[in-house]
Amino acid sequence: MERKKYPVSFWVLAALIMLLIAAAVFAPVLEPNDPNKSSLMDALKGPCQQFPLGTDPLGRCLLSRMLYGGRVSIFSSLIITASVFVLGTVIGVFSGYTGGAVDMVLTKIISITQAFPKIILAIAIAGVLGIGIKNTIIALCIVEWAEYARMARSLTRSVKERTFIKAAKICGCGEIKIMFRHILPNIIPPLIVSASLGIASMIMEVAALSYLGVGVQSPMAEWGAMMNTGKDYIQTNISLVLVPGAAIFITAVIFNLFGEKIRDVLGTRN
């Protein structure tokens, strides 16, 4: 069997992602200052030895808050993606394989969930649950699971009619075993590709909710919330918006390109 060759660009992007995750994990070690320590005497300072990227309107170190903001933005996005991937896949496989009334009900729920604009629905749910990163994660999980469920259902319905599934039934395999031992391994590659591409969207959606004031709770650092803090100073100190905005853009692009490489490696198109 011929081994798949991974292009150099795949490893470069993987290394960049590991670097981003490492910077987030080791933020307490890398931080030049306490990210939540405010001092009006140091407010809106430019880059200097003490504050490499300057300070925000409350005198907090911008670099330290960028590092801690990366922890929130990246890890919350990974948690959301992993959660909706598992939940949506399980529901989709169960719905597609079971069929009948169960499939009809679950399909209606999926369709209703997807009928609403994602960000509007997420804002509404986060507003009801309250401000905080946990509620942000819950809100986005409620909004995003349906996409994976619909994909998993569609793939399951195409796979369950194949000969090897009928053979498994004849051999006496139980329904659960067929779903998760025979069907799931055959539909997982396109779902993995979708999840890897979805991380970039999650980063931007977490940032969007925080920017709109229904995401993280002050004084927690998060890139979208930092842009919200700096928007009133965009004409006098554009770095307050530009730095976290660039971090969101670059991180999303890296994850998106990595997802494209995973799609090429797995040979799937969705």
Notes on the protein architecture:
With 270 residues, the chain is mainly alpha-helical. It has one domain (60-266): MetI-like (MetI-like fold). It is 72% helix and 0% strand. It contains 10 helices and no strands. The chain starts with 7 loop residues before the first helix and ends with a helix. The mean pLDDT is 90.
CATH homologous group name: MetI-like
CATH structural architecture = Orthogonal Bundle
Number of helices: 10
- State the assembly state of the protein chains: single chain
Number of strands: 0
The CATH topology is what?
MetI-like fold
CATH class: Mainly Alpha
Mean pLDDT: 90
Strand-pairing-aware structural class: mainly alpha
Spell out the blueprint of helices and strands.
Elements: H1 8-25, H2 27-30, H3 62-98, H4 100-115, H5 118-129, H6 133-159, H7 163-170, H8 175-211, H9 223-230, H10 239-266
Helix pairs in contact: 1-3, 1-10, 3-4, 3-6, 3-8, 4-6, 5-6, 6-8, 7-8, 8-9, 8-10, 9-10
